[in-house]
Design brief:
Number of strands: 0
Distance between the termini: 63 Å
Largest sheet: none
Order of helices and strands: HHHHHHHHHHHH
Number of helices: 12
Oligomer: single chain
C-alpha cells in the first residue's frame, strides 16, 4: 500500500476509536431490532450500507411494515436529517480538493464523522482527502458490522424478543431530550409535541404523521417570516 494511504489510515484510526464502541453497540441493537421485526441479515447489511443514517434506518423498519407512503417517508427523512444540510455547508472547503472521494464523503457524513472531520487537526504530512475518507469509511464499517452482528445474534436466539420494538421509541426520546437540553429556547420542541398530539387526536395513529410534519414546518416558516418582517421594520 502506498505510504500516503498508510499515513492517512494511521492518523484517522485513533480518532475513530471512541466511535467504535458506540456504533458497534447501537448497530447490534439495530440488527436485533430488525431481526425481531422479520428482516433477515441481508436487509440489515443492505440498509446499514446504503442508508447509513441510524435514526432513519430505525424508521425504515416501520415504514416497510406499514402501507407505503412515499411523501411521508421523504418528509420524515428530511426532518430527521435536515442538520446534515448545515454539515455539508461547513465541509465545502475541506471537500474541495478531495476529487472523486468527495462523493463518498458526502454520502457517509453522519454526526460523528462530521464532528471528527470538521475539528481534527490533520498533520501536514498526511493527505487530507484520504484522512477524511478513512474516518468516514471506518465509522461506517463499525456501524455495518454491528448491524450484521446484531441480526445474526438475533437469528441465533430462540424465542421472541419482547420489547425490542421499544428500541426505536427509546432512541427518539433520547434524541429529543438531547436536542431539548441544548436549545436556547424551546419553541420548536413544544411546537412539535403540541402539534403531534393534536394531529394524533384529529387524524388517528395511522394518518397523523404527514399532517403533523406539514403543520410544524408551516408554523416554523411563518414564525421566521414574521420575525424577519418585524426586524426589518425596526
Amino acid at each position: 500500500m502506498d505510504n500516503k494511504y498508510i499515513k492517512a489510515f494511521k492518523a484517522a484510526f485513533p480518532k475513530t476509536i471512541p466511535i467504535f464502541a458506540g456504533f458497534t453497540f447501537l448497530g447490534i441493537s439495530y440488527g436485533m431490532f430488525a431481526n425481531s421485526q422479520g428482516f433477515n441479515v441481508w436487509y440489515s447489511l443492505l440498509m446499514s450500507s446504503l442508508i447509513f443514517a441510524g435514526s432513519v434506518e430505525f424508521l425504515t423498519i416501520g415504514f416497510l411494515l406499514d402501507v407505503f407512503q412515499p411523501l411521508t417517508v421523504l418528509l420524515m427523512t428530511l426532518v430527521v436529517n435536515f442538520r446534515h444540510f448545515f454539515y455539508g455547508i461547513s465541509m465545502l472547503e475541506k471537500f474541495k480538493e478531495t476529487g472523486l472521494k468527495k462523493y463518498y464523503l458526502i454520502f457517509g457524513m453522519c454526526d460523528e464523522t462530521f464532528s471528527i472531520n470538521y475539528t481534527a487537526k490533520i498533520p501536514e504530512d498526511v493527505d487530507q482527502g484520504w484522512f477524511l475518507f478513512f474516518v468516514t469509511l471506518l465509522n461506517q464499517c463499525y456501524w455495518v458490522t454491528g448491524a450484521v452482528l446484531g441480526s445474526l445474534l438475533g437469528a441465533s436466539m430462540d424465542g421472541e424478543f419482547v420489547g425490542m420494538e421499544f428500541v426505536m421509541t427509546a432512541l427518539f426520546i433520547v434524541l429529543f431530550l438531547e436536542s431539548f437540553l441544548n436549545e436556547k429556547e424551546h419553541f420548536s420542541s413544544y411546537l412539535g409535541l403540541g402539534v403531534s398530539a393534536l394531529s394524533l387526536l384529529i387524524f388517528g395513529q395511522a394518518n397523523f404523521l404527514l399532517p403533523a410534519l406539514l403543520s410544524i414546518a408551516g408554523i416554523i416558516l411563518l414564525r421566521e417570516h414574521v420575525s424577519q418582517r418585524e426586524g426589518a421594520s425596526r
